[in-house]
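Quick note —
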Amino acid sequence: MLKIPLSTHTVDELFADVELRCASLQRTGWTDWSDDAFGQRRCILAEAEKLAPNHCGATTADASVRLNATLYRRELQLRIEAIDFRLHAFPVNQLLGVPNQTSDGLRIPFHLMNRRPLEALADAEDYIALVAASEHHLQQMADALRVGLRRGILPPPQAVVGAQTVLRDILRGNPVTSHGDTHPIHQDFMTRAARIPGIAPAKLRECEQRLVAAVNGPLRRGYLRIEEVLGEMSRTGRSTFGVCDLPDGEAYYDHCLRLWSGTSEDADHIHRLGLMEIERLSEEIRSLHTGAPTLKSFAELADHLRADPDYCYPNTPEGAAAYLARVRTLSSAVFARLDQVTSWRPAASLQIDPVEPSRQSSSLYAEFYPALAGKPSLYLINTGDMTRLPRSELAALAFHESVPGHHLQICTTQERSDLALFRRRPFQYESYCEGWAVYSEQLGCELLEDLLSTSDRLGCLTRRLWMAARMVIDTGIHARRWTRKHAVDFYAANTFAPRTMIEQEVDRLSVWPGQAVSYYRGYLAFNGLRTAPQRGNLGLRALHDRVFQLGPVPIGMLPQELFNA
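Predicted structure written out below.
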């Protein structure tokens, strides 16, 4: 049974108890991937799901308490389903697992280097202990992947190849290999541990020796077990691309759409909605672009823009530096004008950096990680291949990841004390968070209209077009059995993205079903608030303040909860 007596349950108490009990199953600091541990988690969640409606205020007159109870019960139901579908989610893939949802598996090096504190000797001991404990966790993952392989659950071939590339990068560097640069984990540990106040040189050397032994022993052996399974997957192969062809794949995709879209809309509805938006946005782009008046078709316009030598910054260190400098300038400019569109602002700072060189071959073109334990939020840009970063879309992407997008919305939510604990978590309700971020691309362009060029405004539209195409392609791959080539060709014919970016995106959608739908579906919900009849005379700033005051909800519930509060 759960620890708290039924008569004293609130949503926060139930949530805290559930998280504590689930965390107690991670005895090594990493997720326990045994069937027994997942079975125990499922029992904990199922018990809590039964308690939620009767003991967390689902029948109270207080609307906010009632909303929290409804939302938490929904979350528990989805988490139970996610346990049942854990192998369908491809926990080992070229994205290092499910972004923003995992901190272990292939993501261990990133988690250690970017999310673990290392400011005191106790932190150094914890860091070393985590590395040493990784082998058991990775062996469990390898065993689970083999179970999935026997059931016919494995990623598409491109994802397997991508994961193998990631593993080669993880297993490269001294002391794991006798040649090359220092291993990134070793380098990170020594750089930060050397700054620990009062640490003696002898103690630092002793810590280094144990860290090196843990990296070269348990961590390396654990990843070699994963590598063996990936080799088996590569030899087995898979001829299909979407999850609908996996065992129970259709049920899994239905789960994904409910989880990520925040609505009850089915794949056909989302597909048709995406097609309509592509047609509308294509016309808007044609009307805005005046640089090539003789070009008649959308495809001709797209080819014309891709062929422009200034389409991207130079693929050089200087080009990367120029890109980063403009992102920082625009983010600062939005911060200065933020009060025009909302009275909310985050206390946490924002750090804008390039993705570490060791991850550039596998990383997406941009990543956002919210502030954590006194550290700033991270907006990381993959400058390893500048051809994936169109110059015209720089501003919109910056607004999406920084302000008024993720940094503003997620950090102000995290920093609240008056919102249910489970609703403060980063990326809670993906369609809300990503939908707000896409809406912020438009909002940022409106805020800085006097500082932006026609090219920047065009980039805002082409980014939105890209998001609308995601709705079509995600549902095409996973519900209509599109091939990889079909998906790539559709992207190329209906967006302005370069081919390298398109191929990486299609491979991303193949292992993260449903998530890509959240961006544009969420945008439509937020943008629709502007013209909602219930808005009345509410100003735009007041409208945004009301959105932030409400806090994250599935976007299918947004208008009702916002205007009926």
